[in-house]
């Protein structure tokens, strides 16, 4: 594959349409979803804590990729400052051409400016290609995060918190048997 010359720059509000198009290339869903993405990108651009970088073709303003980063502290007890790259996306047509590498190089420069010695990248566990790419660049797994909706978790916890009614009856029967000196089987037969 031929490398492309890219220019990395901070995103601007005028880039929102291009950012929406880039994000939707994998999932061209409804127009409502596009509007929600546009609102989300505007919020990211207005957030002083986040940096949104775009990769543009050297000779045009076409957006080939994006990177969203923010300085964070990793860990609650043993705190490590890091630049957290939460989104790294390159158009499928321009992958394997140095666009992602250029965006990550800009992230390293940003980390240097902030005085941060670590870069943390979040990637979907199911994205084998992205995980391999980051591993080749030297990213090591730190921890596994799992997500569940509160509804699913609520149902699962209720199932484990409430005792099984038959187990409660069995336990009561066993305790009566122990008090009366009978075996639980004899007590179950009505002895």
Blueprint (SSEs and pairs):
Layout: E1 6-10, H1 16-24, H2 31-46, E2 50-57, E3 63-74, E4 80-90, H3 99-114, E5 119-121, H4 128-136, H5 150-161, H6 165-180, H7 184-188
Parallel strand pairs: 4-5
Antiparallel strand pairs: 1-2, 2-3, 3-4
Helix pairs in contact: 1-2
Low-confidence stretches: none
Strand order of the largest sheet: 1-2-3-4-5
Radius of gyration: 27 Å
Largest sheet: 5 strands, mixed
How far apart are the first and last residues' alpha carbons, in Å?
84 Å
Mean pLDDT figure: 83
Q: What's the shape?
A: elongated
Query: What is the H/E string?
Result: EHHEEEHEHHHH
Determine the fraction of residues in helical runs and give it as a percent range: 40-55%
**Total number of beta strands:** 5
Strand-residue fraction?
15-25%
Overall SS class: alpha+beta
**Count of DSSP-assigned helices:** 7
